[in-house]
């Protein structure tokens, strides 16, 4: 028998390769089916084989493991004993107290807490506008954002305070969101005009949640600048026995209430939250005051709503889209990423930002300075925001940028136009010693430098009442009742006339229906009834609609002949 030659090539037809793939798939399917029917459990995790017997240090390792198990068991037993010892006989007797005794104890503890906490909010009817607050205040604190203080200043308000010969203090809030070099430069720049104080609000009084894993970072002690601010306010008081009136003013959502809560040491004033549905332009709807004693000095703290800008005399750029975009960015209230036209807002932001910092922060390729379309195109390509036709979705890219700004995850800072080099004396400040440097910010999470803004020169409404003051329920009901009587009378009179006209036509229609119903089939009669019931639907009445004419109902319902 001749010897069969060994196959020297792996070449084959596509039909043969297809048959091999099919057989492999069938084999895998059969094995999978049999594995499902097999009752024996097979774990996917491999079992630890343990220490090999030929390992020279096996006895030592086993001894260490047994010692660890013994220590763990002892710790578990000690914890159990401590829990049992914590329940003393006195506690068991307290559990057997009657309900009246427990109620009396709760009431006594509640009165003790109320006696200790004398700080309660109050509404003063005399402080119905901003001018009354400025007249009643001894010291006016203008809260600024430390990242861009110039954009949050109001030249009109500062002039009004100077005209009344009141002391003005510039408070730089949110210093923990910008590098220490920027805060030093701005404090030195602003101190040449008015006293400037760096401040950091406590995290427990902000909108964020308190972390249970790291309570030190979110405790009320994690605030800086309170002692320095109180020391500066004490110097403004002539005598220690006199109550010092302190008014806190500023742009909406700059952190005025958080500053006051940090000074008081509790959540006394309402704080803005992004999740809350609030219709007003500011969280604080009217002036709120609180009296307390701090370090032997009586204070009367007055919280005010955000500035209400006057619309009279606005011209040029202030009335344009750029001024509106700056207001949206500075207030940062609500979901600004859901704006109908977010492009102008991003245009203002990109025109002020440093090009290299934007490239490094967003990890995008280079683009020309001020070219918003190129910047948004790069953002859209990075996040995969491409339309069906292949073009970049620039509006969606704008929403991505504004979402970071709205969530305060867009780190930015500004520097004065002419920063002074003589700021070494400020490094020993207790607040500045806790801040991060610019180099640390650039490592994580990044830092974007913006051009400094200018102080707002628009007029502030001083005499106008607070815009967010809501009407009481009685006033609203009174207005609704007085305004709706006339309309109701018109509707009633119109309805009476229509009913009189309809009665005559309905009587004629009923007579015709009685005659025709005797001759018609029952099924046809049912069909007619259903059609007539659907056709006689009454029109929806509107309170502000004019009453219909008298002849309209008669002409629409003519008797059948």
Architecture overview:
The structure is a single chain. This protein is an alpha/beta fold and 561 residues long. Among the domains are: 174 residues, P-loop containing nucleotide triphosphate hydrolases (Rossmann fold), CATH 3.40.50.300; 135 residues, no CATH class; 44 residues, no CATH class. The protein has 18 helices and eight strands. Strands 3-2-1-4-6-5 form a six-stranded mixed beta sheet, with helices on both faces. Strand 7, helix 15 and strand 8 form a beta-alpha-beta unit. Helix 10 packs across helix 11 and helix 13 crosses helix 14. The longest helix has 47 residues. About 23% of the residues have low confidence.
Quick overview of this protein structure:
The chain has helices spanning 14-37, 58-86, 89-95, 99-116, 130-136, 155-163, 180-190, 226-236, 256-264, 321-331, 343-352, 355-362, 372-383, 394-406, 438-443, 473-519, 522-535, 550-556, and strands spanning 139-145, 167-173, 196-198, 244-249, 288-294, 297-303, 412-414, 448-450. The chain is α/β, with parallel strands linked by helices.
